[in-house]
Amino acid sequence: MSSGRLPGRRGARGWARILRAGLLLATATCAPPAEPTLLPAPSGALGPEIRVGLAVETPRLSVTGDSGLEVQDESGALVAAAGAGQPWSAPNSLSTAGNLTVRARGNGTLAVNGRPYRGTLTVARGRAGFTAVNRVPFEDYLASVVASEMGRRDTSDFEALRAQAILARTYAIRNLGKRAAEGFDVLPTVVDQVYGGASAEYPLARAAVTSTAGLIVTYQGLPIDAFFFSTCAGHTVTGTEVFQAADRPYLQGVSDLAPDGQAWCRLSPRFRWREEWSREQLAMSLGRSLPALTGTSAEEAGTVEGVRVSARTASGRVQRVTIALRRGAIEVTGPAVRQALRPVTEAALRSALFELTEERTGGRLARLVAEGQGAGHGVGFCQWGALGRARAGQDAPTILSAYFPGTAISRAY
Questions:
Q1: pLDDT for 57-89, tens place per residue?
Q2: Pairing state of beta strands 120-125 and 99-104?
Q3: CB atoms within 10 A of CB 38
Q4: Distance (Å, rounded) from C-alpha 294 to C-alpha 261?
Q5: How many other C-beta atoms can be found within 10 angstroms of the C-beta atom of residue 128?
Q6: How is the beta sheet containing 328-333 ordered, strand by strand?
Q7: How far is the C-alpha of 197 from the C-alpha of 116, rounded, in Å?
Q8: Which of 75, 105, 240, 352 is the most buried (most CB within 10 A)?
Q9: Where are the domains of the chain?
Q10: Distance, CA of 402 to CA of 381 (rounded, Å)
Q11: Taking the model in full, what pTM does it have?
């Protein structure tokens, strides 16, 4: 899911060019329509192309085509070919000044290091290795993003899938060119949006994209900063609580409770959670995280004597923790808190909405327990909340209006 990084200036300029080209064709308020339908999609609209950085500076790159592949240089000359299923490896002799384009024969897919993708592949040589960029039409890209972000769902969840499709398209449009200096637009991970390629797709996710083709969420005529995450536990948070630059009228914390007073996202497996560390596990976890976050050495991080919450945000999420070490206390603030208190098997704590309990033996820290709610940063669109709303009969515009008040649904292409 989106990490919430704001787009760079290149992305904003790219969108301005789209507006000047006259591609914003229609606008509708993001509120329940008279009939629970979205604007009809133009036939065959695949939208602009997006560039996804599948591999960045990797030492080896292997590509196969399920129907065979062809490799061309920048002049269009054929420089290599392979039959169906036969691997082609990027040559170490490739110049850093030139790119290669890999195409599947027919309507086939290209598998990069074993994972199939639609579209074409551009391969460039950098100082440390190869960068592989998947160039793919928006709607093909989004079919995989919706499936990857929302998982496999049934027809009762269709309106939530449609809402995610509109939002994912908004994110992609808003972030075109954000990583232009690296040679692509977005990464295929939660840093941007999860993109699993062709193998992640399934028919209902594809239908959600097709039925909303070209639609995005806008505010005052421009695409919104499309933040989304897993589980809010009943209330989203204002953007600036988490991201300093996310000061937007439509990124305000909103209640996400159903009429019965229960959270729409209560079906989420991450609605309630518990993590615990023995003293040894905590020392190991902090030894991995604190050097990068605070400059504290791994050796000093291993002398942990206690951890406590020392500040919370207006929504009750943890804003700062104080970690007592042998030589003194250090503080970790903001989103870094979730990275500092890493579970044993995960990269970050599920959310910042948690309570800490220290268990001591003979006055010495023996165990730290975190009991929390929700998953993700909490800004914008709650994915499990959207699923709960869809199952209750809400349509995609209603769902999006709930999480982004004051916005509109507009056609980008």
A1: 999 999 999 999 999 998 899 999 999 999 999
A2: antiparallel
A3: 22
A4: 41
A5: 10
A6: 306-312, 318-325, 328-333
A7: 6
A8: 352
A9: 1-47+141-268+375-413, 60-127, 272-373
A10: 9
A11: 0.87
